[in-house]
């Protein structure tokens, strides 16, 4: 399965990074890093939009050949989106940790580090590189989620907790997750079904912020998700393929927000 391959590679990568930069060298420093409020950005009335910065994915290959994360972030700063997701996974998504600082340098919006967290070291690492929020995937962490989530909160990080099944949702709710992301893409085979979010809505408490992820291609998709009570959507490929046409992207967003 694709997820198993990513996790296996990530475990090896993190062991190498620990040797290169041991936690003790920056563990205390991260306490003083100021973060932006990702949760507040998604908790405004209406539908809120997290726009993604990514070069590639295992299912789509190269999405943006002439990839410039700073230029993309500058576009997102100008238009009516609410937060930014940055892919930092190196091998499968062609991301980089360096993108976090580059993006935060040109935008006022909170930034999510989107990666595959397998080790608590990465939570400190995320804070150290300037992320405001991290992604915690229940399919990766299982019952370890609760401890990872607790540590992230202690460090002042928000967490987007990603689920794709009822069992995973129960784990997320047991950890008292405040932001639940329902991934419409099955990480086992990368198939997508937008109706996945609707199936979960009745089980998610109303006070919990719900984010729908993957497969969102049109303003009508977003209006549908808004109608079932979703607070926010995460959009990647749709914007990446059209980022040069700023007006078209802005028109898409305004229509999706009913403006």
TrEMBL record:
Single GO BP term: L-tryptophan biosynthetic process
Pathway(s) served: Amino-acid biosynthesis; L-tryptophan biosynthesis; L-tryptophan from chorismate: step 4/5
A Pfam family annotated for this UniProt entry: IGPS
Any one Gene Ontology molecular-function term assigned to this protein's record: indole-3-glycerol-phosphate synthase activity
Domain named Indole-3-glycerol phosphate synthase: residues: 3-250
Enzyme Commission (EC) number: 4.1.1.48
Family annotation (InterPro entries): Aldolase_TIM, Indole-3-glycerol_P_synth, Indole-3-glycerol_P_synth_dom, Indole-3-GlycerolPSynthase_CS, RibuloseP-bd_barrel
Keywords from the UniProt entry: Amino-acid biosynthesis, Aromatic amino acid biosynthesis, Decarboxylase, Lyase, Tryptophan biosynthesis
Top-level division of the source organism's lineage: Bacteria
Keyword Phosphoprotein on entry: no
Catalytic activity: 1-(2-carboxyphenylamino)-1-deoxy-D-ribulose 5-phosphate + H(+) = (1S,2R)-1-C-(indol-3-yl)glycerol 3-phosphate + CO2 + H2O
Keyword Lyase listed: yes
Enzyme class: lyase
PANTHER family in UniProt: INDOLE-3-GLYCEROL-PHOSPHATE SYNTHASE (PTHR22854:SF2), TRYPTOPHAN BIOSYNTHESIS PROTEIN (PTHR22854)
Family membership: Belongs to the TrpC family.
Protein name (Swiss-Prot/TrEMBL): Indole-3-glycerol phosphate synthase
Lineage: Bacteria, Bacillati, Bacillota, Clostridia, Eubacteriales
């Amino acid at each position: 399965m694709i997820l198993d391959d990513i996790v296996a590679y990530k475990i090896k990568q993190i062991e190498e990074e620990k040797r290169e930069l041991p936690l003790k060298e920056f563990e205390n420093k991260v306490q003083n890093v100021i973060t932006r409020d990702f949760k507040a950005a998604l908790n405004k009335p209406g539908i809120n939009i997290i726009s993604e910065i990514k070069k590639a994915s295992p299912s789509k290959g190269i999405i943006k050949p002439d990839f410039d994360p700073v230029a993309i972030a500058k576009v997102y700063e100008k238009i009516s989106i609410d937060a930014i997701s940055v892919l930092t996974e190196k091998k499968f998504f062609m991301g980089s940790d360096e993108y976090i600082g580059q993006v935060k340098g040109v935008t006022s919006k909170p930034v999510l580090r989107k990666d595959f967290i397998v080790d608590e070291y990465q939570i400190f690492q995320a804070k150290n590189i300037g992320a405001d929020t991290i992604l915690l995937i229940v399919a990766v962490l299982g019952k370890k989620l609760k401890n990872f989530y607790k540590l992230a909160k202690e460090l002042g990080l928000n967490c987007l907790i990603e689920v794709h099944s009822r069992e995973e949702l129960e784990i997320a709710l047991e950890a008292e997750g405040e932001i639940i992301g329902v991934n419409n893409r099955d990480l086992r085979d990368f198939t997508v079904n937008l109706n996945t979010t609707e199936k979960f809505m009745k089980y998610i408490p109303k006070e919990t912020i719900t984010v729908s992820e993957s497969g969102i291609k049109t303003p009508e998709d977003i209006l549908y998700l808004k109608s079932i009570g979703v607070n926010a959507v995460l959009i990647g490929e749709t914007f990446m393929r059209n980022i040069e046409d700023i007006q078209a992207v802005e028109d898409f967003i305004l229509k999706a927000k009913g403006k």
